[in-house]
Amino acid sequence: MKRKKYFGSNLKMYKNVAQTESYLKELADRTRELCMQNPDMELFILPSYTSLETASKSTDQSEIHLGAQNMCWEDEGQFTGEISPVMLEELDLHLVMVGHSERRHVFGESNIEENKKMLAAMKHGFTGLLCIGETKEEKGYGIADEVLRTQIKVGLHGIAAEDLDKVWIAYEPVWAIGVNGIPAPVEYAQEKHHVIRETLRELYGEAADVVPALYGGSVNLENATRLFVQPDIDGLYVGRVAWDAKRFAGLIADCLATGEK
Ligand code: 13P
């Protein structure tokens, strides 16, 4: 099954409201032609919470989809500091990220919590972008595949096959993310994406083929095209290199210019 081509960026805890707005405007201007030439391309940006409302008002989401970086699984209640799916619904968002490595490893979230968030995303009609990835230590013990399989099986537990068109996966090895990250070798990334595909198939059969799997973790201008053309990589989920609109648009153009996957 042919899936779309995905390019997205998580802005993490960077850019204030004005910076986010001007970034989105510049990115839209620089990618408009590419979007028109490539109707199967899906571009998305996840700004900070405080920028979401302005971003949603000022962005044409037929060009750039917007999403939140995290969400509580409850609609309301005594959850100080959390943001509910009902609050996100007010902002006309399509996408919610769940289980980014910084949520799991800096803020101690578990697979079970990520599952509750994915179920809440389905209930409220959001696309849930479930992030998975092994730590350096887990890789060292040779259990990366088991970790990925567990994160998928628990993360998607209880999600019906009919809801799979609202599920995206991002494979982001923890050791590859951020300023101290080492980009995953392309062959390694493809191999792990294959494990993801097999696990999804095992759980859902052919229905799983609608679920895209994106690679993230130190994607840069040197490795982007090689990662993008891998058979089981449906797109790139980029941090630092995408936070400059010109550079991100250039990276996307390079990938699309590599031709049909
Ligand atoms: P970097 O591209 O900066 O490594 O970040 C990737 C990431 O965390 C995307 O969610």
From TrEMBL:
Q: Which domain of life is it from?
A: Bacteria
Q: Which reaction does it catalyse?
A: D-glyceraldehyde 3-phosphate = dihydroxyacetone phosphate
Lineage of source species: Bacteria, Bacillati, Bacillota, Clostridia, Lachnospirales
Q: CDD domains under this entry?
A: TIM
How is this protein annotated for GO cellular component? cytosol
Q: Chief location of this protein?
A: cytoplasm
Family annotation (NCBIfam families)? tim
Recorded protein name is Triosephosphate isomerase
Family, according to the entry, reads as follows: Belongs to the triosephosphate isomerase family.
Keyword check for Cytoplasm, yes or no: yes
Biological process GO annotation list? gluconeogenesis; glyceraldehyde-3-phosphate biosynthetic process; glycerol catabolic process; glycolytic process
Q: Which InterPro entries match?
A: Aldolase_TIM, TIM_sf, Triosephosphate_isomerase, Triosephosphate_isomerase_AS
**Key words of the record:** Cytoplasm, Gluconeogenesis, Glycolysis, Isomerase
What Enzyme Commission number(s) appear in the record?
A: 5.3.1.1
The protein's annotated pathway: Carbohydrate degradation; glycolysis; D-glyceraldehyde 3-phosphate from glycerone phosphate: step 1/1; Carbohydrate biosynthesis; gluconeogenesis
Q: Where in the cell is it found?
A: Cytoplasm
Q: Does the keyword Cytoplasm apply?
A: yes
Q: What does the annotation say about its assembly with partners? A: Homodimer.
Q: Write down the PROSITE patterns for this protein, in alphabetical order.
A: TIM_1 (PS00171), TIM_2 (PS51440)
A GO molecular function assigned to this protein is: triose-phosphate isomerase activity
